[in-house]
Amino acid sequence: MQVSIDQDRCCSSGQCVVTAPEVFEQDDHDGLVRLRVTVLPPVRFADVRLASELCPGGAITVTEDASDRDGEQTGPTTV
Ligand code: SF4
Q1: Which of 15, 17, 52 to mutate to test ligand 1, by most ligand atoms within 8 A of the CB atom?
Q2: What end-to-end distance do the CA atoms of the chain give, in Å?
Q3: N or C, fewer C-beta in 10 Å, the chain?
Q4: Domains of the chain listed by start with CATH number
Q5: Average pLDDT per 10 consecutive residues for the chain, totaling 79 residues
Q6: How far away, in angstroms, is 28 Cα from ligand 1 center?
């Protein structure tokens, strides 16, 4: 899975940070989204998909293929 963000579309609402705080953060000054990681661990894939769905600005793009489902945990996860 790859995730990219478009700060021009980000409206600083913060849902992504609430949904996947290990992956997304907001700039302290303007509130725009930033990625906290360069490589996404499979355990975070579901959270990232949900963050992309919830983003009101459509600022989060997820790209994945079938192999991304390999090794992905299902069910509740702990941090
Ligand atoms: S949910 Fe979308 S609009 Fe809100 S801070 Fe995250 S990227 Fe920006």
Answers
A1: 15
A2: 19
A3: C
A4: 2-69 (3.30.70.20)
A5: 96 98 97 95 95 98 83 56
A6: 14
59 strand-pairing partners: none
> Does residue 55 contact residue 5 with C-beta atoms inside 8 Å?
no
Q: What gap in Å lies between CA 22 and CA 33, rounded to an integer?
A: 13
Instruction: Write a three-state SS string for 25-47.
Output: EECCCCCCEEECCCCCCHHHHHH
Mutation test of ligand 1: which of 60, 61, 62 has the most ligand atoms closer than 8 Å to its C-beta? 60
For ligand 1, residues with CB inside 6 Å are 5, 10-16, 26, 33, 55-57, 59-60
pLDDT at residue 63 in the model: 94
Q: Report how far residue 69's alpha carbon sits from residue 15's, in angstroms, rounded to the nearest whole number.
A: 24
